[in-house]
Design brief:
3 copies of one chain form a homotrimer. By secondary structure, the first copy, chain A, is an all-alpha fold. The first copy, chain A, has one domain (10-360). Chain A is built from 14 helices and 2 strands, in the order H-H-H-H-E-H-H-H-H-H-H-H-H-H-E-H. Chain A has helices spanning 3-23, 27-56, 58-82, 86-115, 123-146, 152-180, 182-185, 188-196, 213-245, 249-261, 263-274, 278-303, 317-334, 341-360; strands at residues 119-120, 338-339. Chain A has a two-stranded antiparallel ribbon with strand order 1-2. In chain A, helix 4 (86-115) packs antiparallel against helix 12 and helix 5 (123-146) runs parallel beside helix 12 (278-303). Chain A is globular, with a radius of gyration of 20 Å. In chain A, 60% of the residues are buried. At the A-B interface, helix 13 and helix 14 of A face helix 5 and helix 6 of B. Chains A, B, C: GO terms for molecular function: calcium:proton antiporter activity.
């Protein structure tokens, strides 16, 4: 698209969405305008992320993107906790994890794989991601498996302990991956090796980004801010729209909110996958789901202590099944550090299976 | 065995089995004759498969064999669905999956491993097989885990959706493995590398098959046809024999029918393993179980719509445990693309554990 | 520590612990003295193990250590079975398995990883260990998953069959790993490769052990004997101490007894990990848990037949969850044959999660 047209449309849709949000009573109009604005800001975010990633290295760029994308989710979830809508919070946490592991990763692998025969990324990082996913599943599985043997108070206590341990684990992971073992976990080197297979693929080093380092960071911040705003407005109107369509809270929380809330990760990851930077794409999808499972979700357990209803980590059977199943198939597919279009198809099939099950439950 | 003797015995046992089937009332005699004929036709099928595999390449040969072997099972299962014996259908699906993953693969690894120290096959194909097995387990696990939250009608709907998704996944897998990524998934190259370890092993290239390409294909079709016929006759008489021995329907369906129905895969896979063509042997065993889980089983859900009782994909705890456990241990053992006799022993031990459990349940 | 001081303290603490055990009524004093003596004997055992491992090769040394360490546990468990305390036996079996897979292995990876950036060991052995762990989990999972469909008598029968199959599997594993495929599964070669990364690391070949081969073996036997004795005395006094503190039998069995009973493995494994002999350290931790799951636990099913109450293999949900979760995370971390400090942290976090859950249940 012509850049001038793009920026005009971005400005216009944001303005109209804001006017509709504050002054227009019709949910359908607000929904449509917020969607349009969100999609454009997400595209903007994708471009800014790629530009920052160019300066910062893939891994740090991916981390920044996951963080900014999930900041929106943490804010939305905190509002839900304040309202005491704890089931909706757990559904949206579940939805974000499986949305990233199955939908975002699946689409990245599929679209990247349709363009490049085989794409590869650092298998050492992939192995660690698998172990971290397993840690997250264990953190949710243990309280659920033992919940019938525990009193409500004991469930609270166990949830707080596990939440604390997962946050400690996540902080140590940042120290490990960013400081002590940055070298082993870099995605750059492998990217370059992977691209040797494809003689005509884009070489990141030869691309000159449109924006300076400072402007890239500024645009990353600004577009993350507007993605968060538009996500929230969309969520506000989507519930009314969804209820009019007769969908359950579980389905809305786990699929609709999660898909919209992860639009940023979507566009950014698929964008990078189609540029054969699969390492950065995986980092966004998997890193984002790990951050939700190991940081956002445990943090909400502590945040909930400031409100009337405390939240525990005991998820429902359907939610636990969804998270465990997603972690296992994503682990099996990403373990070898090499991907293709069919592996994307498998992730999307599992996403559709879970989506159908959640719709019917 | 002298070829002339073999063909004479094959002809004689088939003739006598046919006469007994139509004119003889005693189940024991019919059982014995059908068994003998089946074993001989299975040996014939093994030889024809190997000959076709020589011309077609290991992978396509393995696929053909799995298809022909499972055509028999699909026909038998369709008759059971028509009779409304849906529990027996699910038990025999379960039995075919675990029979291929544990018994056929276990015996192949054991006998191949007793002859060759280490045998290897394409680890990329092995990795994909593992992910596909996991997809099949997820397809069975999700409806079972959520079944208590669903009405009978919702279970039907979910089963139909999942069945449709699994069939789409299977068709795309065929496109992926046969067309777009044939090169990466070939078993031939790795076979040759694997054989370098063993200086005196048989070199497939130097063997001249007894039959021409056309005759090989014809004999493959003919022997598959007779294996299917004899399997069906055997199944007809074995139920009476089994009930006389006091065995449960679950055990008969999951073990006796499955062992006999997979006799073709057995002999062919073990035959190839002992020739150090482990890639083709694994393709038969694993490919066959994947085809049952991702194609035969979902197809039966749709086929059942034409009869009075619709079949869903909600399997019992025992069946689901058996399939999941088999998929996990087979995945763990096959993942590295290298096998030995002890890995065969582990698969057989799991088969015996499940067999004992099914016998007692 | 100065050797003369060490031996004096070892002699003195053992003497005082013995006097307290036979003549002193106060549990706290007996507990403190037995603890001190145990820690010193465990250190002695670690040194003797390393010396024997130097002569015997890492793998045989690791096996000897695991065997001697578990002989103590088998003796203690047999006494518990005689008293009919079957729940305590199962809790201590669970605790030993997870203690080795999470605490011993976690501390080894953490302390080894703080000294060496990346440590490696034979990935072929690691792959087999993962499959064996899975076999052990299957052996416990199948009777538990089907237990509600089985009568008490059928549960006995199934337990005896599975116990027999696991013992056969374990014996064949010894034949496989010690005789037929010793070469592929050696940890020595990989160790040396691993050490190339670290120029200044200790080279095992250049170290001259303090003791001769004969003396090393004698000291291994003597220190194992005293570790067993002191473990038993400690267990005798710790129950009174624990009950005074208000802890449940499950927690005491699975954590306190297991930690103390595995003190020998602890010190030896961590000692080796800090000398960058990670292959031998993993062999102690994983080998020990496999031996308990595949040999000690099934053997107790048969041993229990000689006493009034027969023991079955139906473990509780909490125990099964703990074993399965430990096996999965340890498998995920050890599969690639390469470790670092953060992987140790993940194992320890899971250990703390399970410890908290068992404390509250």
């Amino acid at each position: 698209m012509n850049p001038r047209w793009f920026y005009s449309l971005l400005f216009l849709s944001t303005l109209l969405s804001g006017l509709a949000h504050w002054f227009w009573p019709g949910e359908a109009v607000r929904f449509t305008l917020a969607s349009l604005s969100l999609i454009l800001w997400a595209a903007m975010l994708g471009k800014a992320t790629e530009s920052v990633a160019h300066y910062a290295g893939d891994r740090l760029g991916g981390f920044l993107n996951a963080t900014f994308g999930n900041a929106a989710e943490l804010i939305i979830a905190t509002f839900l906790v304040r309202e005491g809508l704890l089931d909706m919070v757990k559904a949206s946490i579940t939805g974000s994890i499986i949305g990233n592991l199955l939908l975002v990763l699946g689409l990245s692998l599929l679209f990247g794989g349709l363009k490049y025969r085989v794409q590869s990324f650092n298998p050492v990082l992939a192995g660690h991601n698998v172990s971290l996913m397993l840690l997250a599943v264990i953190g949710l599985f243990v309280p659920a498996a033992l919940s019938f043997q525990l009193s409500a108070g004991e469930r609270e206590t166990l949830s707080l302990i596990i939440a604390g341990l997962l946050i400690i684990g996540y902080i140590l992971w940042l120290i490990f991956s960013m400081i002590t073992h940055k070298r082993e976990l870099t995605v750059d080197q492998k990217e370059v090796e992977g691209e040797k297979d494809e003689a005509l693929s884009a070489n990141p080093a030869s691309e000159t980004p449109d924006w300076s380092k400072g402007l890239s960071i500024l645009l990353l911040l600004v577009s993350t801010f507007f993605v968060a705003i538009q996500s929230e407005w969309l969520v506000g109107s989507i519930e009314a729209v969804a209820h009019a369509l007769g969908w359950s809270e579980l389905f809305v929380g786990a699929f609709l909110i999660a898909i919209i809330g992860n639009a940023a990760e979507h566009s950014a990851a698929i964008f990078l996958a189609m540029k054969n930077r699969m390492g950065a794409a995986v980092e966004i999808a998997v890193g984002s789901s790990l951050q939700i499972a190991l940081f956002v979700s445990p943090a909400l357990v502590f945040i909930s202590l400031f409100f009337q209803k405390p939240m525990n980590l005991v998820f429902t059977t359907a939610e636990l099944t969804a998270v465990a199943v997603s972690a296992f198939i994503a682990a099996s597919i990403s373990r070898d550090g090499s991907t293709n279009w069919y592996e994307g198809v498998m992730l999307l099939i599992v996403y559709l299976i879970l989506g159908s099950a959640f719709y019917l439950v």
